[in-house]
Amino acid sequence: MRTCRAAAAGKLTALLATVVLLAAGCGGGPSPRAWAAAVCSALTPWRAEISKLTSSTDQQMTAQTTPAQAKENLVRLFGGAEQASETARRKVEQAGIPDAEKGVEVSEGFRTSLARMRDAYGKARDAIDGLSTSQPTVFYDGVRSAVETLNREYDASALDTTRLNSEELKRAFAEVPECR
Predict the structure, then answer these.
(1) pLDDT digits 0-9 by tens, 77-100
(2) Please, are residues 164 and 108 in contact by the beta-carbon 8 Å criterion?
(3) CA–CA gap between residue 157 and residue 170 (Å, rounded)
């Protein structure tokens, strides 16, 4: 008798665990407002870091430094932008999928856009890191080319919001204080 009850209890526990797992998979993501707040909290420091790095890059491009110094600084700057983009992408991923119409597509769009930006910065870092500094003119031409490629790839990675239109999420982004 004891064995039957133990077996029945085990089956009931397994059944309840299955029901809980299935229920967790249906909807249950963060509300649109909670998700928008998490995304904006991830993107605010990223934007600040990218702005700071862009300003530093502009200064670096006009500063009177040796090619070796410029290379070291630019590699560090683009590496920082790559890391900041990955951190923001990871935080958006951790925010989950919003429980909203087109929530999966919108979340994926944000993550894909940040991954492409991360990759563009990494490619620019690698391109500059691979440049020789022995001939300054050739080096700076290579830097300009890497930055032009970065700008094109960065622009191409922008989130296409025309396909990711969710009224619930639009409202949420407009309402939460983290997005202002």
Answers:
(1) 999 999 999 999 999 999 999 999
(2) no
(3) 20
